[in-house]
Amino acid sequence: MRLHPGGRASCTLWRYRLSNSQAKSQRNGHLRRRYLARRLEILRAAGKEFRVRGFAETGMRDIAAAAALSPANLYNYFRGKHEILYFCQDNSLDRMIAALDKARRMRTGAASKLRLMIASHLRCVLDEVEGSTAHLLTALPSRQQRYLLAKRDRYEEGLRNLIASGARSGEFVPCDPALAARAILGALNWSVQWFSPEGPLTAAEIADGFADYLIRGLLAKPNALERLSSGRELHESMHEQARQEVRKRATAR
After folding, report:
1. Other beta carbons less than 10 A from residue 172's beta carbon
2. Exposed, middle or buried: residue 84 (CB in 10 Å: 0-12, 13-18, 19+)?
3. May I ask the CATH class of domain 82-252?
């Protein structure tokens, strides 16, 4: 087979372009990850300001100072405090739904799946993002509220289904899954009102304690909690995997 006179040169040029394209893609991916990480840092700083000053009294200059940014630089990441609040809600729900999807795929009992969800939920609102913004949904425009409420409903429905599945299998006592789910979510979400990073317990320790208390009331055989607690290392691994999946999705946007 004969090569076209320009065949080798064309092949070399093609490899060069492919190499440049891959390098550019890697650079863009790195920049997107840095951009997302900076947005999360701003989110944590903003959440603390919202908690101390109140959402209405907090300005973008206050947030910029807390995040060690100039006001002009802050606007490169967020157009206003409502966008910061929306990002908080959306990012948190993405993490929780990722944990829910991971729990569904676990080849284990309903109690282990519920422990993963409880731990993931608490660590998200207490540790990974600033949880004080969790109760400020009504400050957002109605269109954004509807979008986030639909996501919340999907998450709550997943929790209900998990509890109902445990009751059907006999692992949990017969109960009203909707009532049980709301009791659990109410306890988890209220923790942002009293949790302090400087307190005696870390977010991870509170998550483990909450999981023990909340699951014990559902178990048909309460002594099964001892066996459940022995699997915490697995749940921590699953939690980390869920976080990585959310980062990948955020980077791809």
Report:
1. 25
2. buried
3. mainly alpha
Question: Which two three-digit tokens encode residue 118?
Answer: 């409880």
Query: Which own/partner pairs from 21-29 qualify as long-range (CB within 8 Å, at least 24 positions apart)?
Result: 29/251
β-bridge partners, 172: 219
* CA separation for the pair 113, 169 (Å, rounded): 14
- Any residues with CB less than 8 A from the CB of 62 and at least 6 apart, and which? 49, 53
CA distance 140 to 86: 7
Q: Please write the tens of the pLDDT for every residue from 153-209.
A: 999 999 999 999 999 999 999 999 999 999 999 999 888 878 887 889 888 888 888
Cα angle value 25/29/31 (rounded, 5°): 115
Residues sharing a CB contact under 8 Å with residue 13, sequence separation 6 or more, in sequence order: none
Burial 148-171 (b: 16+ CB within 10 A, else e): beebbeebbebbbebbbbbbeeeb
How far, rounded to the nearest angstrom, does the alpha carbon of residue 185 sit from its chain's CA centroid?
15
Measured at the CA of 180, the angle between CA 176 and CA 185, to 5 degrees, comes to 150
pLDDT, tens digit, 9 for 90 and up, residues 29-53: 777 888 888 888 898 888 788 877 8
Q: Name the H helices within 124-202.
A: 142-169, 177-194
